[in-house]
Automatic annotation (TrEMBL):
The protein's assembly and partners: Part of the 50S ribosomal subunit. Contacts protein L20.
Described purpose of this protein according to its UniProt entry: This protein binds to 23S rRNA in the presence of protein L20.
Protein name (record): Large ribosomal subunit protein bL21
Pfam (any one): Ribosomal_L21p
Family classification: Belongs to the bacterial ribosomal protein bL21 family.
UniProt xrefs under InterPro entries: bL21-like, bL21-like_sf, Ribosomal_bL21, Ribosomal_bL21_CS
Length: 101
């Protein structure tokens, strides 16, 4: 059984036991989180939301808070001697999916 959830403006296909990196959530390590925005739930009788499935929830546990690898942003304007190098590390939350209700 799997579900499609939406969090942080992105959609994820999840099953029980999956570990996913989502946009940073306001939760500490070890906290339980609930995703209410469930778009689809599979099973004997698949349920498709319009836009969300009523009463469906996906529960998970926060494993870690961290930052992704650094992405280099380099801006350059020719003939102007203008250069700017910048780095960015996007924060994320690692969540282990514990169950789909």
């Amino acid at each position: 059984m799997y579900a499609i959830i939406e969090t942080g403006g992105k959609q994820y296909v999840v099953e029980a036991g999956d570990k996913i990196k989502v946009e940073k959530l306001d939760a500490k390590e070890g906290d339980n989180v609930t995703f209410d925005k469930v778009l689809f739930v599979s099973g004997d009788e698949p349920k498709i939301g319009a836009p969300f499935v009523d009463g469906a929830k996906v529960e998970g546990k926060v494993l870690a808070q961290g930052k992704n690898k650094k992405v280099i942003v380099y801006k350059y304007k020719s003939k102007k001697n203008e250069r700017k190098k910048n780095g960015h590390r996007q924060p994320y939350t690692l969540v282990e999916i514990s169950g789909i209700n």
